[in-house]
Design brief:
The complex is a heterotrimer of chains A (114), B (140) and C (251). Chain A is an all-beta fold and 114 residues long. Chain A has a 5-stranded mixed β-sheet, with no helix packed on it. A 3-stranded antiparallel β-sheet of chain A has the order 1-3-6, with no helix packed on it. Helix content of chain A is 0%, strand content 49%. In chain A, a hairpin with a 2-residue loop joins strand 4 (52-59) and strand 5 (62-69). Chain B is mostly beta strands and 140 residues long. Chain B has a single domain (8-17, 30-131), classed as Sandwich (Immunoglobulin-like), CATH 2.60.40. Chain B contains 1 helix and 9 strands; from the N terminus they run H-E-E-E-E-E-E-E-E-E. Chain B has one helix at residues 11-16; strands at residues 35-36, 40-43, 47-48, 54-60, 70-76, 84-90, 94-103, 109-117, 122-131. In chain B, strand 5 (70-76) and strand 6 (84-90) form a beta hairpin. With 251 residues, chain C is mostly helical. Chain C has a single domain, classed as Cytochrome c-like domain (Cytochrome Bc1 Complex, Chain D, domain 2). The longest helix of chain C is centred in the first third of the chain and has 16 residues, at 56-71. The two termini of chain C are 16 Å apart. In chain C, 45% of the residues are buried. Mean pLDDT of chain C is 89; it is low at 1-20. Classes of the chains: A mainly beta (114), B mainly beta (140), C mainly alpha (251).
């Protein structure tokens, strides 16, 4: 195994079990260098720019968010949101960077009556 | 709000804060956009040890929405080499118009949080962040 | 970018006592010992405390996968393995966690050793250290008799570089203060591999130590230089009783 493909590793965290309409956190953490194009390596060479250029999260096709610009997200970024859902289902996150690397991750939540 | 379609949605909010932006001079059409304070909060440390990771929370006071929803959230860092730090469209699954993340800052500056409501109103909140150190090369 | 020097203040603060003979106990008393997390900003501390926001966990996840694929045949439990390192080999050299992983990788998994600071090596090290969280690095009672400890002791206390500093200048005398705008900790290794926001990645204790040599404006040893492994052993002795807290989040 050699160096990682940017964006291949990620975590999407939701509670496994919630009540109908209960508010809970969705946390997304992606391993990505978010290379700005302004950094240099040990030998002084500029590291080529490579930022995430698309990133979205949905729940069973319903949007949670869709990122239009992510210029200043940190390396290995995390994003946390507060959501509520009415039935059991899956959260799906998808992303692509400037070099065409794509990644995705999903996580299921089970909803029980309030 | 139709006139705004070709211009960045957050621009009036930045102009209202009187920050130099790369898009200046501003088009007259922008003046029509309503920019308000008070409904949006940007929570960011006023002193940041390093610009490589500055935690931010952006949230809207639901009591001030009056039936409207939040369509977009943005963070503008005018002194960054790429001033539009983050721009998100919010979806219906969100229970609260609230975002927690961390951003990079290239310099001491007023960071501007912007929210666009469903009726086109812009809310903004700016916080001056003092960068106490810059990222340095440590030989490794 | 290199940082400018603003060391006048700390030189003023730095007034080293002289030791005719080095004491056989760590200079920082047990009651005063604190890990690096006690010195980072509240934001970083929060990020470390919450595994869901700790980017180091991305490496832990990957290490867990590799471990269950390549290592779990022999090691049924990952807990406690990392706490047994660093240790002394029969030839008197020091075996660090990364050394041991690569030793098992080449001799037992029979695959080429992983490169220094490579993703899989950091992943395995982070996973194993994570699995030993809360435990302390085992320190042999007679470790101070070993040649490795003695080599490290003299390196730790040797004044070197353009600033005339030794490791003690910062980590035994200036902890809690700021040097070049960084809060100085007591210099313990229990959080490593750690995620440093300035590296924008996870890195080993070996890498952190090289950064300290760089900061001292002295010759930076190669990653493979045995003095760095010796120092890891010395640091474990110096940190006796502090629990492992890897992967830590550091500036």
């Amino acid at each position: 195994m050699s160096e990682p493909i940017p964006g291949r590793n990620a975590r999407l965290l939701v509670p496994p079990l919630v009540r109908t309409g209960e508010e809970f956190q969705v946390r997304l953490l992606i391993q990505h260098p978010m290379e700005t194009g302004f950094r240099r390596d040990v030998d002084g060479n500029i590291l080529e720019v490579n930022l995430l250029e698309s990133l979205s999260l949905d729940f069973e096709g319903q949007p949670v968010f869709n990122a239009l610009t992510m210029n200043a997200l940190t390396a290995n970024p995390f994003l946390t949101f507060v959501v509520a859902v009415k039935q059991s289902g899956k959260f799906n996150a998808r992303w692509r960077d400037m070099k065409g690397n794509v990644g995705s991750i999903s996580a299921s939540v089970r909803v029980v009556a309030a | 709000m139709k006139a705004l379609a070709v211009l960045p949605w957050w621009l009036p909010a930045v102009d209202a804060f009187a920050q130099p932006t790369p898009q200046k001079p501003l088009d007259e059409r922008l003046r029509a956009a309503k920019v308000e304070r008070g409904g949006l909060s940007l929570d960011i440390p006023t002193l940041a040890e390093t610009g490589t990771s500055v935690p931010v929370v952006l949230f809207v006071d639901p009591a001030k929405l009056a039936g409207r929803t939040v369509a977009r959230l943005g963070i503008i860092a005018p002194q960054n080499p790429r001033p539009v730090a983050l721009e998100l469209e919010l979806g219906s699954v969100l229970a609260q118009p609230r975002l927690t993340t961390a951003i990079r800052l290239g310099a001491t500056q007023a960071v501007i949080g912007v929210a666009q409501l469903s009726d086109g109103t812009l809310w903004q909140h700016a916080i001056e962040v003092l960068l106490t150190g810059s990222a340095c090369f440590d030989g490794t | 970018m290199r940082c400018g020097l603003a060391l006048a203040i700390c030189v003023a603060l730095f007034n080293p006592p002289s030791f005719a003979q080095s004491p056989p106990t760590p200079l920082i008393a047990k009651e005063a010992i604190r890990s690096g997390s006690g010195f980072t900003s509240p934001a970083l501390r929060a990020q470390q405390k919450d595994d869901d926001l700790n980017p180091g966990m991305l490496w832990v996840d990957q290490g867990r996968e590799i471990f269950s694929r390549d290592c779990s045949g022999c090691h049924t439990k990952p807990e406690g393995l990392a706490a047994r390192l660093p240790k002394l080999a029969s030839d008197g050299s020091v075996v660090t966690l990364e050394h041991q992983i690569n030793r098992c990788q080449s001799e037992r998994v029979k695959q080429p050793a992983y490169a220094t600071e490579s993703q899989p090596l950091l992943g395995l090290a982070a996973f194993l250290a994570f699995a030993s969280r809360g435990m302390s690095h085992a320190v042999a009672p007679d470790v101070t008799q070993s040649a490795a400890w003695q080599r490290a002791q003299s390196e730790f206390t040797r004044v070197q570089g353009k600033l005339d500093f030794n490791c003690r200048s910062c980590h035994d005398y200036l902890y809690g203060k700021r040097v070049r705008n960084q809060a100085i900790s007591q210099g313990h290794g229990v959080g490593y591999p750690a995620y440093r926001v300035e590296w924008q990645t996870l890195g080993s204790l070996n890498r952190r130590l090289r950064a300290c040599f760089f900061g001292m404006e002295t010759k930076v040893p190669e990653a493979s230089d045995p003095i760095l492994a010796d120092l890891e052993l010395y640091l474990a002795w110096r940190a006796q009783g502090l629990p492992i807290e890897a992967p830590a989040v550091r500036r």
